[in-house]
Amino acid sequence: MTDVIHDLDTRRLLCPMPVIKTQNKVRTLSTGDCLKVVCTDPGALNDIPAWCRINGHEVLETGEQGNECFVVLRVGEDNGALF
Amino acid sequence: MTQATQPIKRRAIALVSGGLDSMLAVKVMQEQGIEVEGVNFFTGFCVEGHTHAIRKKDKDKEKRNNSLWVAEQLGIKLHIIDISEEYKDVVLNPRHGYGANLNPCLDCKIFMVNQATLMINKAREFAGDRGFDFIVTGEVIGQRPKSQRKETMPIISQESGADDRLLRPLCARNLPPTLPEREGWVNRDELHDFSGRNRKPQMALAKKFGLDDFAQPAGGCCFLTDESYSNKLSDLWKARNERRYELDDIMLLKVGRHLRPKPHYKLIISREEGENRFLEGYRYMFSSITTVSCPGPLALVDGSFESDEELQQAAAIVARYSKGRVLDEVTLEIRQPDGVARQVTVRPAQPDDVLPAWNVG
Ligand code: SF4
Predict the structure, then answer these.
(1) Which terminus of chain A, N or C, has less C-beta within 10 A?
(2) Does residue B61 sit in the same domain as residue B157?
């Protein structure tokens, strides 16, 4: 069975907006859900994985395609929905 | 020891800017066994992040968001909150006025601590034990002329609604005891009494904690403390005849050379490749000028031309910053946001044609 992958488009947004959008999207997901974030600010390739490490989410894949980057993550135990 | 006799683990939420002071404040709390989570507020004026993404000269430095990096070093969770919309009122109508530039530091601090207060109230309501007991900041008395004075500390505590749930571990001993101190959750004797602009005590404490890689913003944590940036923001308000801004406006003020040849239009001219790429993303919102016959910058036109002469003048100015500046003629393309474009050929402006007074910032 393949996991459903949710999508988030943060193209054209600059740091820290891609992280904020990711955080806010994750709050709406459940533990174990997967999310693919697409971005154009290459800084997000550092920031989103750092945010995942801090908040206990797993980074499954990162990559670059042309001017775009992406991060696939799996939501950890706490989706941070309190805030 | 049984579960019942173990002391309750007290929890604090710390304002994490990404600088050294908030990092130390969190460390001091962790040393006392307090469990800390961080919160970082995105106002739109933050220095870090996008500026690295934009400017090519910063490319060699690793691009990182300092608050995330700090949180990772400290081993704490970090919540990043977008307050850019609500923050407009702080910038436009600060009750306590501005600092040296357009920085409303005191109102800003009150606003942020208030946001943190709302967060801990909400957490207490919904999370019970997993809520937070108090708020921590890295403020130091006397460090900033406007917001961090001994008289302003109680103002921040009161007007934010945090009251005695606001603890400043780096200067707490210069202030009346707060709730966490009175309740014995933290030991006041192990808090600090830093004051003034001397950074030596912070450096010593950093050393003691083994911290050696941290950001040290000189003026303040945001662009509003920057004179040139504040001038550009004032100019924007003057040109529009009203004090307001959108997020895109304040982002664009961070980038490029800003020239205002006429009250009704301003040129934002890229100075290097990174800025070029950044401004490229705004061509669907603004008319833009690029050189065709030689390499040159990308310029956005904020406002509009009242005559063809003005358009020619703007083209000549942009040509001045292109590789063709010494040539007799340069061809440029002026493109509207909808993609409709036309070309003009002009003589590049001469150094004396670009008046110093046009320089915004
Ligand atoms: S420097 Fe900027 S972010 Fe820092 S307190 Fe002042 S206004 Fe707020």
Answers:
(1) N
(2) yes
Distance between CA atoms of B36 and B13, rounded to whole angstroms? 6
- Tens-place pLDDT, residues A39-53: 988 889 999 999 999
* Helix (H/G/I), strand (E/B), else coil: B222: strand
Residues of A numbered 43-72 whose beta carbons fall under 8 angstroms of chain B's beta carbons: which are they? 43, 46-47, 50-51, 53-56
Contacts of B251 in chain A (CB under 8 A): 14
Domain ranges of chain A: 5-74
Residues 6+ apart with CB under 8 A from B26: B14, B16, B36, B38, B74, B76, B136, B138
Domains of chain B: total: 2
Least CB–CB distance from B123: residue in A12, A47, A82: A82
**ipTM field:** 0.89
| B46, B54, B80 ranked by CB distance to A19: nearest | B80
Query: Which of these ranges, A19-23, B125-129, B169-173, B307-311, has the smallest mean pLDDT?
Result: B125-129
- Decide if A34 is catalytic: no
**Mean per-residue pLDDT for B188-197?**
94
- Ligand 1: nearest atom to the Cα of B46: 3
Please, what CATH class does the domain formed by A5-74 belong to? alpha beta
B167 & B70 share domain? yes
Residue ID of nearest Cα to ligand 1 atom 6: B105
